[in-house]
Amino acid sequence: MSCHVIDTGAGLVMIDTGYPFMGDQILESMREVGLDPADLRILLHSHGHYDHIGNTMRFKALTGARTYISRIDNEICNGTVDLSWATELGYPRLAPFDCDVLFDDGAVVELGNTRIECRLAPGYTQGTLAVFIHTFHKGRPVTCAMHGGVGVNSMTRRFLSWYGLSTDCREAFREGLHRLAGEQVDLVLGNHHDQNDTEGKLARVRAGESCFDTGEWRRFLAEREAILDAMLQEEARQERGND
User: In 130-197, where does DSSP find H-type helix?
Assistant: First the structure.
């Protein structure tokens, strides 16, 4: 998973809080780049899976930051539905909690010089959010975006059957990819580090190069649709083989 921290000039926003075992590392990494965890004001979650909410209550207790998630995925946090992926990842379930602020589609969070638009992008979970972060870089406005859940592991027939879920999530995911592709984005953030060449972008920044690419968002979403199609085709092939 990835954990992003945004310095808004009026406090910090953290997007996703990581596995519980990563808590100390996340806090120390913030300090190493000059960010004080005490300045955290908002803990915003892309979805309710274990590896994205694992330090939420710890960081809230430490900093007093308010917690945000979609209204739908809050039911994962508070244990109403058991879809946290803790079991699949081999960890005990977290103690249930409710977030302070529950989002519906199109909700906006503003702090300092940053405006974050939150769009429902169901599929990976029913309440997955895509976030569009409108901020400034060297004085000019830029938009960064992250799709909160593009893995297909929770859309396989086996997973959906196990939890009694509908396969409708697949077409909802596809529709969301198409709808979100119309947004203008300068920089793509990954919900997991391998989704957006995080290491490569860091290397370019350290070399004094730009990592902005206005075409990457559409390419990224198209790649994720191709991965969905490949999964569906493989399932269809396996079903034909079982006939």
Answer: 157-162, 168-180
Give strand ranges (E) for 32-179: 40-44, 66-70, 101-103, 107-111, 114-120, 129-137, 140-147
What's the pTM value of the predicted model, to 2 decimals? 0.94
Q: How far apart are CA 211 and CA 39, in angstroms?
A: 27
Exposure string over 35-62, b if 16+ CB within 10 A, otherwise e = bebeebbbbbbbbbbbbbbbbbbebbee
Q: Tell me the β-bridge partners of 109.
A: 116
Q: Are 199 and 239 within 8 A, CB to CB? A: no
The identity of residue 76, as a single letter, is I
pLDDT in tens, 140-178: 999 999 999 999 999 999 999 999 999 999 999 999 999
- Per DSSP, 73 falls in state T
Q: Classify burial at 225, counting beta carbons within 10 Å of its beta carbon; exposed 0-12, middle 13-18, buried 19 or more.
A: middle
Bridge partners of 132, per DSSP, are 117, 145
**Pairwise CA distance, residues 69 & 77, whole Å:** 9
Q: How confident is the model at residue 243 (pLDDT cuts 50, 70, 90)?
A: low
Query: Mean of the pLDDT values across residues 101-130?
Result: 97
- In what order do the strands lie in the sheet containing 107-111? 107-111, 114-120, 129-137, 140-147, 187-188
